[in-house]
Amino acid sequence: MNKRRPTLKLKSLRQMQAIRSGVARLGAQACAVADRIAELAEPGMREFKSSALLEDFLAANGFRVSRPWKNLPTAFKAVARIGGKTSRATGPTIALLAEYDALPDCGQRPGRWGHGCGHNLLGAGAALAGVVAAQVLRRTGLAAQIVVFGCPAEEMLSGKVYMAAGRAFAGLGAVLAWHPAGETRVNAAGGAAMDSILLRFRGRTAHAASAHGGRSALDAAMLTDVAINYLREHVESNVRIHGIITEGGKAPNVVPDAAESWYYVRGKDRKQVDELRGRVLRCARGAATATETSARMIVKDCVTERIRNKTLAEMLDALLRRWGAPRFSPADARAAAKVLPKKKYCTKIVAIKDDASTASSDEDNVSWFAPLNCVNVACVPVGVTGHHRNWAGMCRISGAHRGLRRAAEVLAAAAVELVLNRPLLRKALAEFRRNRKGRKYSLPISPAVMRRLGSTRTPQAGRDTGEEA
Q1: Which among 204, 165, 140 is positioned nearest to 444, based on CA atoms?
Q2: pLDDT digits 0-9 by tens, 39-55
């Protein structure tokens, strides 16, 4: 990554102080929203109260909120249109992404849902950044639009995939995102491409005492998993294939006539994942043949690799270094120690992350429609396990609130910068078009999945899905 910092126009103390003052004025309210979302801990696609809290916060601060957004009941789009010299002036549209879904078994007691990835902070921080950016821009006289997208079910890797299918992100100037983390840095590379697939097996039931008359769908599911285990030796080292059996019968003395497995297949890009999906399907076909059953693959969700944007990454890195990492107090450290002892907060800014993660996020799908980049901001101590109740506990204390406020300041500053610094925005857009050129956004999501969501626009072009073995 080029270490040269872009020239920033956001230099006046008045503007910087306005952002700082705006976050200070509304920060306690945003943190209270984050804490309430943490208490609710709602699953993906069922975040009704959590999304409403963010919608109400944005509406109370001058945003026009569309809720629900199209066919997704817990998605929303909040827009603040800012001035200009004529009523027709719109200026650039800068979007921020908010998330608010929880994870299973991450609550403070086993079996309870909880925010083991910090999305309670993420949603409130993005909303706070959007409000402050709009307030500051109204004083400039420039035309612009600030949009906050409420994106459900990130942990299911679904919300932004379906929103993209409905063209939510078309026509944007840039998209800004953040994520609570154990360190503060720009995440320029994104994550792995991925398919979420169901394998459904059908056989013939029989009493176990006369099992010769049955054909076990569970046998087919288990044999498929064995075949996939052997497949792992013959894939590239970056590949991840992991899954569970979600259905396998009701009683030991009944041959199961139905079984279902759920797999995540991850690779470096769509080309690699498309190839892997075909190989997994052949494992299922072989198992179905061996057990005299049938198998069907349903592609639930698809995540892409990120279209990278160095221009935005450098801008965000420069802003992070201007604002600095969160400054955690001794009281923050004591509060964290009550959740998990012997863990310390990161108080420096780490170099830009330029290598892709083996994890996945539907955030990367958005990068195919507009320039996008993401900052990680320290909200939990270093070494706390993500997707765990310890992380969820850390996301409800003073250190997490401090990280939320710093993230809001940086994202608000970035949105303001992109409106003020039109050459920088044009450069980011030119880089986006250059990196996107010749690459097709084509996802093999099964049409039946899209129909259930009420969408007639499927994000694929002539791809065979829902394949029968």
Answers
A1: 165
A2: 999 999 999 999 999 99
For 435-465, write each residue's pLDDT tens digit: 999 999 989 988 877 766 654 343 332 233 3
- pTM here is 0.92
Query: 201 and 293 in contact (C-beta within 8 Å)?
Result: yes
Distance of CA 175 to the CA centre of its chain: 13
- Identify the DSSP state of 319: H
Q: Does any domain span residue 421?
A: yes
197: which residues sit within 8 A by CB, 6+ positions away? 262, 263, 265, 277, 280, 297, 298, 299, 300
Task: Look at the block and give the residue holding tokens 């009704």.
Answer: 48
CA of residue 215 relative to chain centroid, distance = 40
Query: Which secondary-structure segment (H or E) carries 178?
Result: strand 174-181
Contacts of 132 (CB under 8 A, 6+ apart): 19, 22, 23, 26, 408, 409, 412
Answer for the pair 122, 61: CB distance below 8 angstroms, yes or no: no
Maximum distance among all alpha carbons in the chain?
A: 83
27 assigned to some structural domain: yes
Residues 292 and 335 in one domain: no
Q: Is 62 helix (H, G, I), strand (E, B) or coil?
A: coil
Number of domains in the chain: 2
Peptide bond into 423 cis (omega under 30): no
Residue reference for tokens 């099992």: 211
Residue 264, beta-bridge partner list: 196, 242
Domain membership flag for residue 339: yes
